[in-house]
Amino acid sequence: MSITLDEVQHLAAQLSPLEQVRLIAYLTQHIAPALSTAAPGPAAAQTPDSWTKLESFWQEIEALGPTAPSATEQLLADRRSRQEGLEGRDRVHP
Fold this sequence. Notes:
Blueprint: H1 5-13, H2 17-37, H3 48-64, H4 71-87
């Protein structure tokens, strides 16, 4: 069974903005090697309109603000949780 582009787009539209950004990051990592070896065509994606669209996209992402804890916050929370599991809640420092 093959999945169509329309089906993938439909599923992607159901993701939260953060999940869509993660999907873009995932796809970028998998597509970049193939693009770096391909020769650019005559209509390379470096038109001013493309750059404007890209800048607009990043502004929209930035406007979402932080939607998840930072790596440091997540690490500290994981450490607290692990310490609570080992020593009990009353011995954990905030």
